[in-house]
Amino acid sequence: MVSSPLIKSTMKVGILGGGQLGRMLLQAGANYPVETFVMENDPNCPSAHLCHHFVTGNIQDFDAVYNFGKNLDALTIEIEAVNADALEKLESEGVKVIPNSSAIKTIKNKILQKQFYSHHQVPSPAFVVTENLQQLKQQAAFLPAVHKVAMGGYDGRGVQLLRTVADLEKGFDAPSVLEKMVTIKKEIALMVAMSDKGETTIYPSAEMLFDPVLNLLDFQISPAQIEQKTLWKAEALALKVVKELKSPGIFAVEMFVDQNNEVWVNETAPRVHNSGHHTIEANYSSQFDMLWRIILSYPLGNTEPILNSAIVNVLGAENFSGKAIYKGLEDVLKIDNVFVHMYGKKETKPGRKMGHVTILSNERQELIHQAMKIKSLLSVVSEAD
Ligand code: ADP
What we know:
Blueprint: E1 11-16, H1 20-29, E2 34-40, E3 53-56, H2 62-69, E4 74-77, H3 84-92, E5 96-98, H4 101-108, H5 110-119, E6 127-130, H6 133-137, E7 145-149, E8 159-162, E9 176-180, E10 184-194, E11 200-202, E12 206-211, E13 216-222, H7 228-245, E14 249-258, E15 263-269, H8 279-282, H9 287-295, E16 309-315, E17 322-327, H10 329-333, E18 338-342, E19 347-348, E20 353-360, H11 364-377, E21 379-382
Parallel strand pairs: 1-2, 1-4, 2-3, 4-5
Antiparallel strand pairs: 6-9, 7-8, 7-9, 10-11, 10-12, 10-14, 12-13, 13-16, 14-15, 16-20, 17-19, 17-21, 18-20
This protein binds adenosine-5'-diphosphate.
C-alpha cells in the first residue's frame, strides 16, 4: 500500500546496536506507531528487552546487516562501527537509512572524517595520516599532538596524547591520524537535527567536563558557559558540518574552544549521543524523540530548553567487576529535579557507562553543586571482588 504523507501505516524500523543509546531510543519510540527491531551480538544487551523483535547478529557483517534490513522500512544506528556497504545496498533497494551510508562511511573512519573537514574548510586541528608506528616515529616535529586510530576507537580508547618524543612509543601501529594538540579552554557539543527534506534545527550547547584519569566524560552542563559570539561560531560550524554531510539524522558535533575563543571541530557522531542525554527531561523534544520524528517523516520537534540542566555519567567504580550493585540510589532519588537512568547492564567494569543522572535547574551553581553531590553519593560496585 502506498501511504500518503498524512496517513501512515506502522513502519518497521531497525536499530543496529543494542546499547544504552538504543535503549533510550526505544523508550521514546514507544510513543509512536512503529514496530522496532534491534540487531546486536549480545542477547542480554540494554536494548534487547525493549524492542518488539531482537535479532542476534554482528552489525559489522555484510550479510547479517543486509538480511536484518531487507524487510524493514527504515534503519538507524546507535554506533558507527556497522557494515556501511550493506546499508548502501539496502538504500539502493529502497530502505530508508538514517543517517545515510555515505555519512556513516565518512565518519566511521577518522582519516576520512578529518579529510572531509579540510575539504569543506571546517576548522579542525591540523593533522597528518600515519599508517603504522614506524611512520608515527618520523613525526617528532609535529608534537605535541594527539594520535587517533582511524577505525574502532570510542570513549577515549583509541586516543593517545603524545607530548614528548618518548611518548611516540604509545601510538597506534595501525592507520591513524596525528592531530595538533589544541590548548583547550572548553569542550562543547552541539546537537543538530536534519529532516529528510533538509530542514535543520539545533539544540542549545552542552559543555563537557572530563575525568582526567579515565579520560571519559564525567559531567556536562547545558547550556555551555561561552560568549555569545563563540556560540554563534560554533552553531554555524555545526550546521555546516551537517549540511555538507548531506544526510538526514541527528548529529552531535563535538568542538574545542581554545584560549583565543577559536572554535575547532573535534569529531562528529551521526546519531544520538551522550552529550544530548539531558534533552530527555530538559528540552521539549529530546534527541531520541527527534530521531523518531526524522525516521518517521514527522515534523521536527522543538529543541528549546524547558530548564537548564546537567548530567552526571554513572561509571563502574574502580576495582569492581561483576554483577552490578547500585549504591546510594535512594539518596539520589530524594533530591528534587533529579532523574535517574540506569541502563540495565548486568555486569559492571571499571569505567563502564552504567547510567546517567540528569539535574534540572536554571541556576548554574545549583547544577554544579548537585552534580558533585550525586557523584559522591552514587556508585556502581559489584558483589564480591
Ligand atoms: P573519542 O571519540 O574516543 O571520544 P576524541 O577524539 O573525542 O575521542 O578524544 C577524546 C578526548 O581527547 C577529547 O575529549 C579531548 O579531551 C582530547 N583530545 C582529542 N583531540 C585533541 C586535540 N587535538 N587536542 C587536545 N586534546 C584533544
